[in-house]
Amino acid sequence: MVLHHGNPEDLDFGNHVLMRNISSSQLLPWDVAMATSNILFTVWGFVGNWFALVYFLGKTELVSRLYQHINIIDIIICLAQVPVIQVLLTGRHPGVFNSSVFCAAWAIIYRSITKLYVMVVLLLSFSRTIAICYPFYQIRKGAVIAVLYIYLFYLGLRQAAKLLTGFTVIYSNDVAYCYPYLLPENNTNQLSDYQSKLMTAEYIIVTLETGLPIILIIVNFTFIVMKLIGSGQVSSSTGGQQRRAAVTVSIFTGVFLSCYLPLSIFFAIYAITSSMDKIDFSPSSGIFSDFTIFWYIWPFCECLLNSLNAGLDIAIFLARVKHFRQLLWQKLLYRIRRESETTPDGTSRFNMTSTSTGARLSVLAT
User: Fold this and answer.
1) What confidence category does residue 271 fall into, taking pLDDT thresholds of 50, 70 and 90?
2) Please, what is the angle between helix 237-276 and helix 305-320, to 10°?
3) What does DSSP assign to residue 54?
4) Distance between CA atoms of 340 and 94, rounded to whole angstroms?
5) In this structure, what is the dihedral angle of CA atoms 97, 100, 102, 105, given to the nearest 10 degrees?
6) What is the pLDDT of residue 116?
7) What is the tens place of the pLDDT at every residue in 170-199?
8) Is-contact 63 328, C-beta < 8 A?
9) Partners of 171 in the β-ladder
10) Is 138 helix (H, G, I), strand (E, B) or coil?
11) Measured CA distances, 53 to 47, 56, 83 (Å)
12) How far is CA 115 from CA 164, 237, 259, 269, 346, in A?
């Protein structure tokens, strides 16, 4: 089914591309600001999470293993921003999203990985809550990681089920990325009764997938913060380490909630109002209008806040994980030292000095 509107410049677009009519100049300041910010967050988040992944690899503690998965997810999220940045800088033309295969793969991977991130944060905060309530209880690390991969398998089944029940993946210039979409049957503009029920069920499932973990994370976050406030100073070194770990997890969770809650709130409102069909959205109806939500809020919440969260994760690691900070500092000093010791012809002064010193010693030995 052809989605684009048939303008002369749209003839090269794929059948999965939906280009809504809007003046590019109307969105230009917003798109440039989002793209510029996204570039900064993406580069910082990608490089930082790569170093963090190297640091946490090989560590067997549960928290470290969960941080490894967070680093991997953050790296994938940062890579997924590249086509979105391209779209924002080219008047929201689809770019690489014009390929239906790439569009579908991007949508499935990105939606699954962002929801998996929520589960990792939930397991991270929940494990810290258990450690606070039951200090001597040994959490089975294998079971926690198994839950994570079972949930990932569920997310894959969910995406497959959506495609089998009539959803297709499209690119739409209003949101500037690809997403699953339920096309009306028989080239009409309205969904059939079956499709309306299917869409309502989809709204309910997605609301539960996004809302329920967030509620549990907020409960765990509140509990940890209250415990930290009421615990006072910890004298023993072991207790101090536990408290420091709890503070790090609470900061990490708080930053995540700040970046993820806007999407959850707006999606819940949009899903409820769309399912009940009691509010008539119009371009002049303010922040909850179709125009504002699709053209401005969805790209901001789905893409920019995710890359921002990936960048803030590294800031937390640098501020709270001493050994990670020392590792980066040592690598930076080593790099600067190597650059300063390199001669114009590309050889190292250190190697030249070592070679000449070795030659002198060999002459003395003879």
Assistant:
1) low
2) 170
3) H
4) 45
5) 120
6) 94
7) 999 888 999 998 887 766 667 778 888 888
8) no
9) 17, 178
10) coil
11) 10, 5, 24
12) 21, 36, 13, 19, 47
- Cα dihedral 263, 269, 273, 279 sign: negative
Contacts of 229 (CB under 8 A, 6+ apart): none
Q: Which of 151, 116, 123 is nearest to 139 (CA)?
A: 123
Is the pLDDT score of 24 beyond 80? no
Strand order of the β-sheet with 17-18 is 17-18, 167-172, 177-182
Residues 52 and 55: their CA atoms lie apart, in Å, by 5
State how far the Cα of 324 lies from the Cα of 320, in Å rounded to an integer.
9
3-state helix, strand and coil shares in percent for the chain, rounded to the nearest 5? 75, 5, 20
- 312/256 Cα distance (integer angstroms): 9
> 68 pLDDT band (50/70/90 cuts)?
very high
Better-scored residue on pLDDT, 110 or 202: 110
Cα→Cα distances 138→64, 134, 141, 145, 249, Å: 15, 9, 9, 15, 18
Q: Are 49 and 78 in contact (CB under 8 A)?
A: yes
pLDDT of 104 reads 93
Count the Cβ atoms, other than its own, within 10 Å of residue 22.
Answer: 14
In angstroms, rounded to a whole number, what is the distance separating the alpha carbons of residues 260 and 246?
A: 21
Torsion region of 171: left, alpha or beta (phi above 0 gives left; psi -120 to 50 gives alpha): beta
Side chain identity, residue 71: N
| Residue whose tokens read 């371009």 | 283
Q: Which of 277, 283, 320, 14 shows the shortest CA–CA distance to 171?
A: 14
Residue 35 contacts residue 23 (beta carbons within 8 Å): no
pLDDT score, position 188: 66
Token representation of residue 287: 């922040």
